């Protein structure tokens, strides 16, 4: 059984950072990796996280006998300017944010920091409601100068993800992140 109100999570990051690939992976959508197809506007994916997965990551405050699954609504937002114009509407009621960037791209940490500053003006969420997903694939090497200059992002939790070698790690980190978000917004539901 699913809980009645889906929990809204935004997926933000520079163009070609792997947002849509991550959204498809987390929601088990079948789009394969391949030719780049830019996301137009915002794409919303709904899926459930099973209570057993969430309970696994929760503290002793959790009622493990509760069989409710949690409905997640993932908003895969394009980084284009038209979308930024609708930012207040998109940000409305979001409980958590995944910030995605490609560690091999020169300008992604700067862009990500800008995105965080702009969106958090509307979201006003605590650092615990953000999870940074650092993407790496192929033979690309991290841009060291940029990775150490994470500035305001340094206080947010961060997971590295390479879909080709450790696909399930991000799934676990996402479940753990969602159980803490859900405990925060409705402690009675877990
Ligand atoms: N091999 C490989 N390619 C990826 C991976 N993640 C993304 N890509 C490719 O990188 C491009 C951009 O990914 P996409 O998720 O559409 O980025 P978005 O613009 O942030 O939504 C696409 O061509 C993807 O197929 C990955 O983990 N491995
Ligand atoms: Mg996309």
From TrEMBL:
GO biological process, one term: intracellular protein transport
InterPro entries per the UniProt record, alphabetical: P-loop_NTPase (IPR027417)
One Pfam entry name: Roc
A GO MF term: GTP binding
Keywords: GTP-binding, Nucleotide-binding
Entry annotated with the keyword GTP-binding: yes
Family the entry assigns: Belongs to the small GTPase superfamily. Rab family.
Protein name: Intraflagellar transport protein 22 homolog
Native source organism of the sequence: Daphnia pulex (Water flea)
